[in-house]
Amino acid sequence: MWSRGLTNTVSRRVMAGCSPAPPVPTPASFRPFSSNAGNPLDAFRDSVDRQTRSTERVGRSWSAKELRRKSYEDLHKLWYVLYKEKNMLLTEQQLSRRRQLNFPQPERFQKVQKSMGAIKQVLGERKRQKIAEHQASKTQEAMQAESEIDDIEVDDDIEVDMSDPKKEA
């Protein structure tokens, strides 16, 4: 106990003589949220009010056929958008539960999940195709190397002396 009081007293004396701590440097890109920008957690909330959402129709999910035409970058961007939408829907669903309200258009969640599953399917197909192409090229290279070995002519006229050189000496 005595040591605790002593260290508190000593630290207060030392801190009293010190200059204030320098400000923490912040990166140039850092901008604190202003009051007019809104809450940063609003990204997890539906931007459309509940009344409009309950009457408004939403779109359909993406099909694998449509996604096969997209580039990898486009699929990545779409995955990110769907992931944000999924998080927003989960937040809204939780808020509806807490407030004991009906969740407007619960089918949106299934549409997002179906679209994300279609993206996974397309990426899996592309991955399997790349693996198959790689294996085909490897087997083709192996067959080509084997045929080159078979094409080498062996001269049968060469005699090889198989006797032990130590016995001759």
Strands, total number:
0
Shape: rod-shaped
Major sheet description: none
H/E series: HHHHHH
Termini separation comes to: 96 Å
Please tell me the overall pLDDT. Answer: 76
The Rg value, from CA coordinates, equals 36 Å
Structural features, described:
There is one protein chain. By secondary structure, this protein is mostly helical. It contains 6 helices and no strands. It has helices at 2-17, 50-55, 64-67, 72-99, 107-151, 165-168. The termini are far apart. The model is unreliable at 1-12 and 29-35 (pLDDT under 50).
Task: Please summarize what this structure is.
The protein has helices at about 1-15, 50-55, 65, 70-100, 105-150, 165-169. It is mainly alpha-helical and about 170 residues long. Helix 4 (about 70-100) runs antiparallel to helix 5.
How are the elements arranged and paired?
Layout (H helix, E strand, L loop, with lengths): L1 H16 L32 H6 L8 H4 L4 H28 L7 H45 L13 H4 L1
Helix pairs in contact: 4-5
Task: List the defining traits of the structure above.
61% helix, mainly alpha, 169 residues, rod-shaped, 6 helices
